[in-house]
Design brief:
Blueprint: H1 2-25, H2 31-38, E1 49-50, E2 58-59, E3 65-66, E4 69-73, E5 75-78, E6 83-86, E7 92-113, E8 121-126, E9 129-134, E10 141-159, H3 167-170, E11 180-191
Parallel strand pairs: 1-3
Antiparallel strand pairs: 2-11, 4-7, 5-6, 6-11, 7-10, 7-11, 8-9, 8-10
Length: 205
């Protein structure tokens, strides 16, 4: 009888250890919690959410996140311009949505860039579709990207080139150790087609 109790106690303790180990290796936490505390890919710790729509968009220099953005990944803290992508947090900068998107969509966003990103291409992914844009300038520049038929899209991702250099290694007088690429100023998600930019014909001489 004593041996039976001893074996039963050992079995119960082993079960507790196994359950505890599983909980440690597979924590049941939100994706936002995982991005900040576990993956170290986010700088948003329990951000305040404010009212807004996807069509109104997000201004990234503003504190908090609009209600349609659950959390971010790969973006450094805010500054007066917006938020820089930082490859130390991962080479994909993302906004995760609270609700999925379907159908045609126009992505309208404005960024600044570090000089060594000018001329390089960045992949822009929303759900099942990926497009590319070429970085045009270091100054604030607006980009519009058309997505034809999204299905259950839950994030917008800017996929940056690998192995970007730390700022101070390119500009020795700058002490910034981050591996920056783009400073995201604003972003909007507008259902339907991107508007066609009309050009005014030159007057004949």
């Amino acid at each position: 009888m004593k041996n039976f109790i001893r074996y039963l106690t050992i079995a119960l303790l082993m079960s507790i250890y196994v359950v505890t180990l599983f909980a440690v290796l597979h924590p049941h936490v939100t994706l936002a919690y995982k991005a900040f505390y576990i993956d170290r890919a986010s700088t948003d710790a329990n951000p305040v959410h404010y009212p807004g729509t996807r069509e109104q968009g997000i201004v990234l220099s503003r504190q908090g996140l609009p209600v349609w953005v659950q959390y971010t990944r790969g973006l450094s803290g805010r500054d007066g311009w917006g938020r820089w992508t930082d490859e130390d947090l991962g080479n994909i900068a993302s906004l995760r949505f609270t609700q999925t998107l379907n159908g045609p969509l126009c992505l309208d966003f404005a960024v600044r860039a570090v000089p060594w990103m000018v001329g390089r291409r960045v992949a822009v992914r929303i759900g099942n579709e990926t497009q590319t844009v070429q970085v045009a300038a270091t100054d604030l520049t607006e980009y519009r990207v058309q997505f034809a038929a999204l299905r259950g899209a839950d994030s917008v991702d800017l996929i940056l080139p690998d192995k970007l250099p730390p700022v101070h290694s390119v500009v020795p007088t700058n002490g910034d150790t981050r591996r920056l690429a783009l400073n995201l100023n604003s972003l909007r998600l507008v259902p339907g087609e991107c508007p066609v930019v009309k050009t005014t014909p030159e007057a004949s001489q």
